[in-house]
Amino acid sequence: MKKINVFSLCCLILFSLNSCITNNKSASDLDSLQLKTSFIDLYDNNLDLSEYKKGKIVINYWATWCAPCIKEMPSMKRAEEILEEYGYTFLLVSDETISKISSFKNEWNFDLNFLKSTKSFESLGVYAMPTSYIFDANGQLIETIFGAIEWDSEEMINKLKML
Description:
Blueprint: H1 6-22, H2 29-36, E1 39-40, E2 46-47, E3 56-61, H3 67-82, E4 88-94, H4 98-108, E5 113-117, H5 121-124, E6 131-135, E7 141-146, H6 154-162
Parallel strand pairs: 3-4, 4-5
Antiparallel strand pairs: 1-2, 1-5, 3-6, 6-7
């Protein structure tokens, strides 16, 4: 039996995921995501992602127990404020319960757009946290970021402005 190293396996998975996303040109990537899961706000209301189609969307998958996720949240809020005039909306999605997400938000006092996914991350193909997907105004996936970053760094702000 031939062994596959972890790097090769990760590359294969990413290539497969990217192929699945980019080959569906009849619907936007954002529409396809909306078909796979629904998002619920902290008041238990369904959120239709098409409300955000006039701008760019960053969907960040995170968990309340994920230290790197928590570490990047303040820089994400600052980036959201800086990029407001560029039409960006940041949506932070967890598959945990609404009460757990709400408690986290209150405890940490983060003023971010927290949502709950009705599907598990595993069923959506999200295996690392944080994972962020950036969609353009047409709903097409234009960037995927695995791991925590400094969202408000000069380099990242300039990159997001150019997307």
